Every structure is written in C-alpha cells, then in structure tokens.
Task: structure prediction
Amino acid sequence: MAKRQTNKRAPVPCIILLSDARNDAALERALARLPRGSALVFRHYHLPLVARRQRFDRLKRIACAHGVRIIGARTPRCWRADGVYGSPREVAGCRGLRLATAHSLAEIGAAVRARADAVLLSPVFPTRSHPGGAVLGPVRFSGMARQSPIPVIALGGMTARRAARLPVHGWAAIDGLNHR
Result:
C-alpha cells in the first residue's frame, strides 16, 4: 500500500520509538541507531517533573544530533518538543507534528477530526506493556488501516519484519527498537 502523507510541514516519520521506564537505560544508544527522520515519543511519566524535564533536555540534544525529532506526551509547550503525542483530544489544536493514539475506527475518525498528522493504531500484537490484553491482530488492524485517510503507524508488539507485512506508513515500538 502506498504511504499516505498529509503533513505539509515535515514528513510523518516511518519509525517511532516510544520511551518509558523499561527502555530508559537503552534510549541513548537506540536514538543513535535510528534513521534520520525518525522520532522519539518522550513519555517518562514515571519521573517527577524536574527530573522529567532534565531527561527530556538530554534526550532532545541527542535526538537533534542524530536527525531524530522528539515528540512530547503530556509535556508543557515551553519544552519545545517537535510535536505532540496523545489522544485526539490532547493533540487537537497543538503545534508541530500531531500523533494521535487510536484503538478503533471511531478513534481514527476522532484523530482525523482533531487534524492529527498520523495515528498510532494499537495494539496490533501482544505486548509486554499490557500482558494478556486484547489485541487487534493483523487482519483486523489491516482492515482499519486501509480505511484511514491519514497515515497509520502500527504499534504493539511491532518489529520491522511484522511492519513490512502490514499496510502502514510506518511502525512504532517501546521494546522492538532497542535491539536494532
């Protein structure tokens, strides 16, 4: 399937690394290995605000040096992330790259109405983040992705090999990108 592109400012990344407490120790190495034009979604909800800001600043310097954009999840605007990641409600009206989360066709529609640049549709496969949780599976995921008018990024148990078999613009991972 052809990659759909709606963002006039900058292309939607094809590879996105999401941060969390589990992968924090490997983030700097992972950022150095990501292709230019990729993105890091900075979450780090586990840190107190001051430590979170310090970690954001450090990772932003590394990301910028490697041509990787840093997208904030619930980060203050003054931190100057290159975009925002969250629910359609959280990305609506924001500046920069807007990456919305979705788990259903209804949420894809909400992301479109919020003027998201792309949607991270999940979970495609079982994940360590939500052991035993319900998954879309590749067939259901593919059907939903084909109906999206904006680029779809696959999330949830993703690897490069799995992404290559899906009709997506790109893929995102927490664990799957730390061992590239």
In short: The longest strand covers residues 97-102.
